[in-house]
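Fold it.
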Amino acid sequence: MGGEAPVDWFVAEDYGLARVVLQRGVALLYVVALVAVLRQFPALLGERGLLPVPRFTARVPARATPSLFHWRYSDRLLRVVAWTGLLLALAVIVGLPQQGPSWVPMLVFLLLYGLYLSVVNVGQVFYGFGWESLLLEAGFLAAFLGSDDVGTPWITLVAFRWLLFRVEFGAGLIKLRGDTAWRDLTALHYHHETQPMPGPLSWFFHHLPGPLHKVEVLANHVTQLVVPVLLLAPQPVATWAAAVVVVTQLWLVLSGNFAWLNWVTIVIAFSAVSDDVVSGLVPALAPDRAYGPTPLWFAVVVIGVGAVLLVLSWWPARNLFSRRQRMNASFNAFHLMGAYGAFGSITRRRDEIVVEGTRAADPGEDDWEEYVFRGKPGPVGRLPRQFAPYHLRLDWGMWFLALGSSAQLSWFLPFLDRLLEADPATLRLLAHDPFDGERPAWVRARVFRYRYSTWEELRRERVWWVRREVGALTAPRRLPR
C-alpha cells in the first residue's frame, strides 16, 4: 500500500477519544437508520409501497440521484442492502475494522455511506430531511479518521468541526432571518405545542413560565451564533464550547422527537473535545496514545479528500451569508457539504389529520373509528411517546400534510387505499388498527385543531390535548367495486 512517512504534522495527538466517539457514534446512528429502513421502507417505498421506487427511477435519471436501485430495485435487494450496512455498522461499534490497517475502516465507512446514499436518493419525500444528509456527510468523513494503529488526522477533525459549525450556525442564522418569534424571544411560547412530534415531556416544557421561555430562546441564540465560533479556538476553549453544544442538544432530546438530528450533532461535537481536558476531569478516560507512523498513502488520500471538500465548501459558505439562506439544502447529488438548519419559522397553531374507518355500508357519525399512529398526536388522553433517535417517517409525513404540503398528497391517497385493503405492511406502521386486520368499508380524513390541555384540564379530564374539528381533508373513500 505504499511506503510510510513520519508526517507528525498530519496527526492531532490530543484527539484519541474524539476518534473513538466519532467512529462508534456515527456507526450506531447508521444502525438506527438502517433498522428503520428494514421496518418502514418496503411499506412506504417498496414494490407495493405508497411511492414505489421503480416508478421514481423510471422518471428520474441516475445522475441526479445516484443509487444502486437505479440498476435494479426489489424489496429483497433493499433488505440485502440494509442488512449489509447493519452488519458493517455493528462491526465498527465493537471495534473490529479499527484494529486493522487504515484502509479497512475507510472501506467500511465508504460502503456504509454508499449503501445509505442509495436508500436516501430514492426515498423521495419520506427521506427529504436534513438529518439524512447530515448522517451521510458524517459517515463519509468518518471514513478518513484512520484506525487504531495511526494517529487521528487533524484534517478530518477540522472537516467534522466545519460540519458542526454549519449545523449550529446555519440553524441560528435561519432562525433570526426567518421568523419574528425568534427575534422577539417568543418562539417557545408555541414550539413545544406545534413541533412535528412532541415527546413525553413536551407538555411540561410548554407549561414552563413565559419569562423562562424567553431565556431559553436567548440561550439558544448564544449557543448557535456565538459558541460555534469558539469551536475553532485553542484548547480548552474548544472543548468547553463542544460541551455547551452537547448540553443544549440533550435539552432538545428531552423536549421533543427529532429523529437522530440531536444525537448526530452530539457525536460530531466530540471532534472538538481534547483528551487532556477530559482526562483532567476524569483520569480513567485518558486514552492510550501509542500508535505508529502514518502511511504515506493514507496521508495523501486524506489531503486529497480535504482539498475536494474545501472546494465544495464554497456553496454552503456562500449560503450562510446569503439573504436568501436555504435550510437543509444539498448542493450536489452526494449530500456532501450541505446546508443545515431547523425551524426557520414557527407554527402558531397545530392542526392534525385524523384518519378514521368504518365497517358500516351507510355509516352514521357514531360508526367511525380512529386509526392511531405511533408518534403523532391522536387520542387526547394518550401521552406522547419518546421515539428519537428512531425516525417515524409516516408520522412526520402526516405533520407536513397537516401544514398543507401538496407534496404529501402524492402518498396520502394511496395510503388510504392501503387501509381499505387492510394491507398488513401498512398497518404495521400504525400503533392501532381498530379493525384488527379486517377491511373497512370506508375511510376518511378529518382535520382537527389541537392544543395542549391546561393543568386544570389534565387533573379534571385526564387529557394531554384538547381538540376540535375544523374541516375535512378527504370525503369518505372506498375501493372501486
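The mean pLDDT is 94.
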